[in-house]
From TrEMBL:
Sequence ranges assigned to domain PAS in this UniProt record: 173-211
Record keywords, A-Z: Kinase, Phosphoprotein, Transferase, Two-component regulatory system
Gene3D superfamilies in the record: 1.10.287.130, Histidine kinase-like ATPase, C-terminal domain (3.30.565.10), PAS domain (3.30.450.20)
E.C. designation(s): 2.7.13.3
Keyword Phosphoprotein: yes
Pfam families given in the database record: HATPase_c (PF02518), HisKA (PF00512), PAS (PF00989)
Signal peptide: none
SMART domains assigned: HATPase_c (SM00387), HisKA (SM00388)
Catalytic activity: ATP + protein L-histidine = ADP + protein N-phospho-L-histidine
Annotated GO biological process: regulation of DNA-templated transcription
Listed InterPro entries: HATPase_C_sf (IPR036890), HATPase_dom (IPR003594), His_kinase_dom (IPR005467), HisK_dim/P_dom (IPR003661), HisK_dim/P_sf (IPR036097), PAS (IPR000014), PAS-like_dom_sf (IPR035965), PAS_fold (IPR013767)
Main location, first listed in the record: membrane
The name this protein goes by in its record: histidine kinase
Amino acid sequence: MPDRTDYSALIAGHTAVIEMINSGDAGLPVLTQLLRVAQPALGAAGMAFVEFAPSGGRVIAATGAAEWTVGRPLPANDPVTSCLLAGPRVQCVRTDQFTNPLTSELAQRGLRRMVVSRAEIGGHAVGSLHALYLAGDEEPTAEHRGVVGYLGSCIAHMYGDQSGLPVHGDGPVVAALADGLAVVDRDATVRLWNPAAAQVTGRSTAEAINQPLPFPLPPSGQVLDHRLPSGRWLRITSGELPGPGTLRVVSFRDTTDQQRHDHERDLFVAVTSHELRTPVTVIKGYADTLTDHWESLSDTDRRQAARVIGQRANELARLLDRLLASAAEAWPGDGPPAPFDLTETLRVAIADLPTDLRRRITLEVPAELPRAIGHRQSLATVLTELVTNAGKYSPPDSPIDVAAGADGQTVCFRVSDRGIGVRPEHVERAFDRFWQGDSGDRRRYPGTGLGLYLVRRIVEQQNGWVFLRPRNGGGTVAEVRLPRR
């Protein structure tokens, strides 16, 4: 690590970032370029930015030795999250002081020290910027901490301008009043509380006036869904009031019924269109094989195909029964995660794929792969979805590589294709429900936009994580990591 920050390189690089913004670029490409500029100027081994939401944080951009962290979650109740959201805005932290999976893996990779700066808007943390250093590097100086703090403020300004950020947010708020209305000062103390606000929250005007706002205050122009202690859900928006003061107007409405209905609808649509598609795909594949190659198949092959079709039909019937019994059932609901053989799971799942996909796959697994902890059956669904995606977005005869591996805390598998690749600004949006990279009447690729959303949901329910990244030489790599036994 250099003793002094390379200000010349930092200013030149930052100028290029500003020119990107002025030319219309926004969001993750600009944020990632800023990290690339900062890393060598600060002498860091890697840079990362964590975006915070009510449900916790997630690494949305990273460079250098920290690039592998993209997509990794930080739960809201994690000690690291609490540390990042509390204390000084800029601080130096040792990763080996914590025991959560992400910081432990950072420490194992030699990244044992980091300078952290919160990106704040009006006292609300929208994220944290991390400059990571190797174990042998000298202690970061006050100058380094000052530069990281400055860059954190620059990123907060990007959020304030709504320039393609937040990645996981709901976008700009329509300038209209909801059921409840409050006006608060710079300390979030209530100065006005209308009757609808009292009805929605159950807090009278007398109880609310001159008291702290009874729920979190989102940054101006952003949307926040918040659950009250009573169990009711509010959708909250805020904006600056014009004039010389520092007052903010807060509007909110009760969305409890909408939250419940949206959850039930999303769960039903996701499960019916994807969990059910796995056995249907297998049945169709074997039926097509029997139809197209009946004369060339042996009696043994025909019986095997019929046996698989029967098994998958029974599985399909069981899935339908469960869905019809309760569309809102928790999923996957096969009990707590348990150790299973990932190698065997991958081989069985690949064997059940349609012939045109199966013949394109190469499987590479180490001789001694530790057992993963999760739900074996749902991981077969995950692999099927990722391989189907790889096949859809790559040339028909190009190879699809499936490889497995492990480190000190996780077991992983990767699906790599040689297709159209993934744009930097799409690596996170691709996991949003119903999102498609292209839309409208001229869409080149079919689909509902639920596959990767369901994949992330399945994996994270098993305490794992999944992310996308561009493949060297073209294409996309989808990586799934699960806790190891």
